[in-house]
């Protein structure tokens, strides 16, 4: 059986490319169209990856065709920089991803939850079989060990916390700033908590679901704003942090221009950490507006990485040990299976209790 990973991430694609993949094929589609007995789609704001198992080699082009089917234009003409890992390299890559070593902000913890969610969705749909089951269960164990035995998570360890760090560089003290958080998902919650930790006391939260906005506002000592009223807040706020699941930009130069008329000599700082972007790039050309998106945050993240390089080395050592053990175990089980034709390459009863 061939184990592989094909995808693209912040290492190989900018946010404009990544946001093209927010509404793409499911793992079940890849099963049908690429001929993979097992397939799992891991999609975040910083990456889109397919992990697959097949009895024959599946080309990168076949997977790319599944992923680009909903992109405007001719899929064959759209060639983003897909990477490919196979066998042991695929195992190592997943372990690094789950542990936060491959993230834009090294050591961030969101990716582990996102990987677990992707696994559960694929398992419930029947797209995950025994190979990927064992691989992902081991990846979750590795991530836990890395976080337990290293300080990889010290410092700014999420996109949200880096965004807040960037805001602090611009404004200095944040305690006097008025902030509107648009969106009430996990990223927004982490960002809001990071704001509170930096002294912000005036936080407003707006979300399409007012109940979710109220829940987040209550958790961070802020106040909820009805979604149809959030634009009016732009007269008062200093910082807008937006992370919604909107498929269309929520803020354009045309919408923002009337709001700026009420802001005399008061800059508006916008951090757009949504993919696809909530704010059109043209907003950054407007007088008195400073817009930062996922690409802008990368430089801050790279500086934060320098502080944790020793911990990265320790984490890589843990991962290397698990890769060697996992590959050895799979090879041994495959040799056993080849001698017993009535069983598939890996059978459920061979799973370790610690991997269930």
Which properties best describe this structure?
alpha/beta; 356 residues; 6-stranded parallel beta sheet; 4-stranded antiparallel beta sheet; disordered C terminus; 15% strand
Structure description:
- This protein has 356 residues and is of the alpha/beta class.
- 44% of the residues lie in helices and 15% in strands.
- The chain contains 12 helices and 10 strands.
- The strands form 2 sheets. A 6-stranded parallel β-sheet has the order 7-6-5-8-9-10.
- Helix 5 (110-125) runs antiparallel to helix 6 (130-149), helix 6 (130-149) runs antiparallel to helix 12 (309-338) and helix 7 packs across helix 11.
- The model is unreliable at 340-356 (pLDDT under 50).
Give me the strand/helix succession: EHHEEHEHHHHEHEHEEHEEHH
Specify Rg, calculated over alpha carbons: 22 Å
Mean pLDDT over the full residue set:
82
Q: Please give the count of helices.
A: 12
Number of strands: 10
Tell me about the biggest sheet?
A: 6 strands, parallel
**Largest sheet strand order:** 7-6-5-8-9-10
Structural class by secondary-structure content = alpha/beta
Beginning-to-end CA distance, first to last residue: 22 Å
How much helical structure, as a percent, in the residues? Answer: 40-55%
Q: How large a portion of the residues is in β-strands, by DSSP E?
A: 15-25%
């Amino acid at each position: 059986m061939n184990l592989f990973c094909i995808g693209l991430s912040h290492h190989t694609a900018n946010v404009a490319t990544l946001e093209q993949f927010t509404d793409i094929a499911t793992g079940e589609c890849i099963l049908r169209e690429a001929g993979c007995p097992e397939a799992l789609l891991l999609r975040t704001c910083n990456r889109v990856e397919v992990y697959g198992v097949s009895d024959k080699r599946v080309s990168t082009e076949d997977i790319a065709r599944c992923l680009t089917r909903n992109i405007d234009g001719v899929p064959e003409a759209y060639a983003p920089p897909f990477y490919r890992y196979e066998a042991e390299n695929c195992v190592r890559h997943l372990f690094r991803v789950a542990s936060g070593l491959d993230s834009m902000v090294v050591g961030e913890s969101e990716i582990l939850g996102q990987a677990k969610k992707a696994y559960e969705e694929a398992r419930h749909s029947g797209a995950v079989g025994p190979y990927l089951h064992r691989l992902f269960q081991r990846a979750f164990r590795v991530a836990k060990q890395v976080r337990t035995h290293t300080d990889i998570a010290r410092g700014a360890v999420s996109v949200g916390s880096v965004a807040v760090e960037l805001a602090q560089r611009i404004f200095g003290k944040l305690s006097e700033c008025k902030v509107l958080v648009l969106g009430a998902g996990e990223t927004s919650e982490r960002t809001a908590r990071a704001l509170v930790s930096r002294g912000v006391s005036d936080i407003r939260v707006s979300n399409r679901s007012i109940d979710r906005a109220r829940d987040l506002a209550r958790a961070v000592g802020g106040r909820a704003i009805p979604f149809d009223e959030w634009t009016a807040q732009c007269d008062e706020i200093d910082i807008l942090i937006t992370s919604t699941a909107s498929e269309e930009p929520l803020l354009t130069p045309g919408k923002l221009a009337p709001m700026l008329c009420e802001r005399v000599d008061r800059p508006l700082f916008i951090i757009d950490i949504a993919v696809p972007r909530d704010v059109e790039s043209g907003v950054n050309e407007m007088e008195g507006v400073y817009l930062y998106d996922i690409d802008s945050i990368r430089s801050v993240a790279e500086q934060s990485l320098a502080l944790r390089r020793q911990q990265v080395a320790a984490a890589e050592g843990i991962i290397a040990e698990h890769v060697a053990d996992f590959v050895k175990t799979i090879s041994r089980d495959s040799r056993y299976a080849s001698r017993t034709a009535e069983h598939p390459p890996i059978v459920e009863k061979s799973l370790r209790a610690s991997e269930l």
